[in-house]
Write a structure and sequence with these properties.
heterodimer, A: alpha/beta, Rossmann fold, six-stranded mixed beta sheet, four-stranded antiparallel beta sheet, 37% helix, B: mainly alpha, flat, ArtM/GltK/GlnP/TcyL/YhdX-like (chain B)
């Protein structure tokens, strides 16, 4: 039952077994088996519509699945959304950064970052604000704390979104195409912040088209095609000597330019 | 055609003190009804978008019934019809407030539904991904944004309901139109008095428009 694709014997932080999901007739995830160890950085690549976003959205229950088993940090997610208490615990421990940032436009940058620690973790305003300011400092936008999201550039907004997720002190971070909505000149600043986070040992699952980032930062790259994991390996192995024809085709298309 | 008619300004101004006595009733029916209508609107607007059918269906029925029938018929039903069921008369003022409440409540339900549904799905997903409960996500993230978007249509509804109260002269509430009719019955200055009545409505609705514009401008910060 347990398919182990990681050498470590430590307790995995994410364990997905035979996960299947359909939207109506469309079978978007097929028998997904994926195990992620604490501290690992896993990059998921694949064509658009391959199911890679759906895959990571299943980890924090933003998408339901119909069959299979997902365990995140010791909490079991059941098929068809029948696990609200575990879901709440998982979401408290798992941070997420979205393609479209999804900052709260009616709240200042500081309130965006400090809201969840106060309402979910029950921190005092003083503690939450102090943490928020420290995190904004860390992602390089401390001077923007009193502004509203619409007053910031895309790259700054995405860094606020990163700080907002980190404020909950997550054990795992999910990134759903974090740079796809950014102007080219702003991609670097977001990737730098993510690189920094990886260096500090954060467990990360990243869906991206940034192959350079994947090669440099990932411990493992997972290639997904039409809802199936085709191949997964260390980045130099996967990029330089892919085993499957599908992977070779995909890489030849994305790496050519 | 003999056009020797002279607009009698003196008569027009003379009617104002009498007409002003109707304003408190007009305002009480309008704003009392709208306040209750707003509460009804929040409740039924949210029920309307519930995934649970037995919560959603009564809300749809309520909205369709009270949006699809004239407010005049509603007030006549409440004032003349309901007493037959209840076995006692209903105060005309109460009947007026109730009619505005159930009528505006139906429209406001749709405004609430539209406002909440207009908020991007990503806002809810971001809230839930941070560990907020669905109730917290609604209270801190969805509702404040939805409410801002609801202000302009709520203003429209307010103005419509204020004007609707003019129909309630038929049940004898001493509101603005009723006061005008009573005054004209003794002076016959229909032109002058109805012009004054119209101007007084305009004064109320323009004040509301102005107040809403201020509120909207304030609310736009950070959008």
């Amino acid at each position: 039952m347990t398919q182990d694709n990681s050498p470590s014997s430590a307790e995995p932080i994410v364990h997905m077994a035979k996960v299947n999901k359909s939207f109506g007739d469309l079978h978007v995830l097929k028998d997904i088996d994926l195990t992620i160890q604490p501290g690992e950085v896993v990059v998921v690549i694949g064509a658009s519509g391959s199911g890679k976003s759906t895959l990571i959205r299943c980890i924090n229950g933003l998408e339901e699945f119909q069959h299979g088993h997902i365990e995140v940090d010791g909490n079991e997610l059941l098929p068809n959304g029948r696990s609200s208490r575990a879901l709440q615990r998982i979401r408290t421990e798992v941070g997420m950064v979205f393609q479209q940032f999804n900052l709260f436009p009616h709240l200042s940058v500081l309130d965006n970052v400090s809201l969840a620690p106060m309402k979910v973790r029950g921190w005092s305003r003083t503690d939450a604000v102090e943490t928020a300011e420290r995190l904004l400092e860390r992602v390089g936008i401390a001077d923007q704390a009193r502004k509203y999201p619409s007053q910031l550039s895309g790259g700054q907004q995405q860094r606020v979104a990163l700080a907002r997720a980190l404020a909950m002190e997550p054990r795992l971070m999910l990134f759903d195409e974090p740079t796809s909505a950014l102007d080219p000149e702003m991609i670097g600043e977001v990737l730098d912040a993510m690189r920094e986070l990886a260096r500090e040992g954060m467990t990360m699952v990243v869906v991206t088209h940034e192959m350079g980032f994947a090669r440099e930062v990932a411990d493992r790259v997972v290639y997904i095609h039409k809802g199936e994991i085709v191949e997964q390996a260390a980045p130099d192995v996967l990029f330089d000597s892919p085993q499957h024809e599908r992977t070779q085709n995909f890489l030849s298309r994305v790496l050519k330019h | 055609m003999d056009v020797t008619f002279q607009f009698d300004w003196e008569a027009a101004f003379a009617s104002i003190p009498f007409l002003l006595k109707g304003i408190p009733y007009t305002l009480l029916i309008s704003f009392g009804g709208l306040a209750i209508g707003f509460l009804i609107g929040i409740l039924f607007g949210l029920l309307r978008i519930s995934p649970i059918a037995w919560l959603r269906i009564p809300a749809v029925a309520y909205i369709e019934i009270f949006r699809g029938t004239p407010v005049l018929v509603q007030v006549l039903f409440i004032f003349y019809g309901l007493p037959q069921l209840l076995g006692g008369p209903i105060n005309a003022l109460v009947a007026g407030i109730a009619a505005i409440a159930v009528n505006s409540g139906a429209y406001i339900s749709e405004i609430v539904r539209g406002g909440v549904q207009s908020i991007d799905r990503g806002q809810r997903e971001a809230s839930l991904s941070l560990g907020l409960s669905r109730t917290q996500a609604f209270r801190y993230i969805i509702w404040p944004q939805a409410f801002r978007r609801m202000i302009p249509p709520l203003g429209n509804q307010g103005i419509i309901s204020i004007k609707d109260t003019s129909l309630f002269s038929v049940i004898g509430v001493g509101e603005l139109v009723r006061q005008g009719q009573v005054y004209i019955a003794t002076t016959f200055n229909a032109l002058e008095v109805y012009l004054m009545v119209a101007l007084l409505y305009l004064a109320i609705t323009l004040s509301l428009s102005f107040a809403l514009r201020l509120l909207e401008r304030k609310g736009l910060v950070g959008q």
